[in-house]
User: Fold these one by one.
Assistant:
Number 1:
Amino acid sequence: MTRAAPQLPDFPWDSLAAAKARAAAHPDGIVDLSVGTPVDPTPDVVQEALRRAADSPGYPTTHGTDELREAIAGWLARRRGVTLDPRAILPVIGTKELVAWLPTLLGVRGTVGFPELAYPTYEVGALLAGAAAVRGDSTVAWGPIGPDLLWLNSPANPTGAVLPEEHLAKVIQWARTRSTVVASDECYAGLEWDAAAPSLLADRLTGGDHTGLLLVHSLSKRSNMAGYRFGFVAGDPALVAGLLEVAKHAGLMVPGPVQAAAAAAYRDDAHALAQWDRYAERRAALLPALATAGFRLDHSEAGLYLWATEGRPCTETVDRLAGLGILVAPGDFYGPRGAEHVRIALTATDERIEAAVRRLTCPEEAVEPPFGASSG
Ligand SMILES: Cc1ncc(COP(=O)(O)O)c(C=O)c1O
């Protein structure tokens, strides 16, 4: 007999349809700042590597090519202060997929912990594994035993908060006296504005001992490669070897041309720095406009989102902004503590960000909802 499908939460984005319709009715079109999907071109260096690898008749290697893992190790050393044996790196098809399946792949049955305000897939991963999904931000919240798997996310989605070195050091010490595996989702690494976001695996913090620690990174945001579906998990050699073993059997290989493109992306920092500049300008344009429109920002030091509040329920703010033709994500998508915040993404073209700035600072551009539409 098959096991009943696990009870998953409602897919939150479906509930934004009415606000989206209202925002789309703006005569100058919608400014969609609700999702964090990159809009700038995939860098030429990456596209070229993909094209060069297009002739790909054989199966790719599950562990990734040496070229790829060396490129990743080089980037980790150069940009993240992490020294790692390339054998302790496993490429994955997108980190959403990894986040959703890591508890299952690790055989977690007890508890998966993740931040109070968090990317929803951490919870989904716990439920798919049949584990308990528990929110918490401090080691005190976990009690003497601790979860089997604890997710950290810095820079954070949705808040843009970073975890300082002292916090990471404390978590490492705490986890070493328990059997908790700590997985650090660093997919917004490098997109740092007002505070630096150190890696959990930084040599300064681990002293080179990665036991029980995993680092997850994705090229979706750093290199505008969300469509390529590429990320990696690295760290504790025994854990990575176990994940590789499962991947060999289950066939979760990253396509060969994507591996070649990812290697080119990790070797090149220039495109990531150029992308940083673009987001920094968009952020600098939005900050004063949001202040003029009566918003307070919390955290928002790093990452691709501004975490904004008017001190009222997030659905009301979503409605108000939809009336200006701007779509944002309600904070309660990310946990109950987000009930009075909205998440505003920096991932829109310069032209759309300028439109948002105009609408926030000249609200007379607001439009009435289309006949019959209600944002609920
Ligand atoms: C915190 C966090 N982790 C992981 C992901 C997944 O990224 P991808 O599947 O594109 O690698 C996202 C995507 O927005 C995210 O915000």
Number 2:
Amino acid sequence: MFRLLSPSLFPLIFTPNISQTSMSEASKHILSQALLKLKATGQFRTLKRQEDMGVDFTSNDYLGIQRQFEAYPFTVSMGGSGGSRLLKGNHSIHETVEAFCADWFKAEAALLFNSGYDANLAVLSTLPERRDTLLYDQRCHASLKDGIRLSMAQHKFPYQDLKELKTKLGSAEGRVYIVTEALFSMDGDWCPLQELLELAESRADTWVVLDESHSTGISGPQGSGYYTSVHPSVRMIARIHTFGKACGISGAVVVGDQELRDLLINKARPFIYTTAMPPFLAEAILYHLKATKEAETNRAMLQKNITFWGKTSKTQTSSPIIPWIIAGNEACREVATRLQANGLDVRPILSPTVPKGEERLRIVLHNYNTEEEMKTLCEELLKEKAQ
Ligand SMILES: Cc1ncc(COP(=O)(O)O)c(C=O)c1O
């Protein structure tokens, strides 16, 4: 009888009477310790409701598509999908969204995901195999880095710039995947995509994975993304387009060849082991995607605002994401709080999200920001700088 009980169960069975309260005190203690550490380093964050934060210089709703749909009545059946896409969860609307995306993003096929985070995990945990090498821009988003962590590849190296990439590519082993964002989410600059593709072409078995999260809707013909504005290359293996930024909703697709779609359906755990998106969400996504594709006036207005900001702030500005560096978590947070108190919704991006010393306000321009609003923000920032 005793042999059947694992020794590790003994403490649980014989510990006299641990009450609910003391268990909860113990867990509270553990949690408070973790929170104290965050507070001590100025990294503790709280959730704020988005309604009452002032003029929007923060959301990723670059083209105002989210705003446009907030007032749009949508009558739907509220049911879920019924399971994973591979079981009961595959509905025709999922495939309609995929067909729309394949056409819009100029690819053979598309596969829908619940989020960009899932899509990045799926691509990077599926494509690279054990002997392969992953070379990734060190500024890549956390979801790409988490995907890289999950991948089987033994060799995973960050690169800082093209020069370092070239060196690392020279000594890389196996099949190589170069991973980058098209428009960097925290720095607002564009990756050197043409050069990356040429580099990939210069070495056998070298491929590019491109996260188009922040470029979708705002670059390329009809907002079809950054890749569609450079020379197409056979070395582009997977592009990830997310819908939570300029498209103003949520979800994502991975686009590429039909074989990529088939492989992800068969092997990508973030695709297989999750409940498929509810059909009503896929339907809403389709409305948002169509509106984003057609939003030429919004794109022109956004571009006008980007140019206005560049002139007013006397900075080089090539995208709607403007990093305003204020080193130090506390200092950066204080400036953001002052701006918010003046009715300007600007948020601080703190370390460790960005490297220490590069803490910043992430200013986001939209088609709906007025010149007056941008001028006010600019003046406030210059005042802060002068202090
Ligand atoms: C570059 C980049 N990739 C992926 C994601 C994740 O996308 P999602 O919000 O759809 O999960 C984000 C979101 O912030 C992002 O900025």
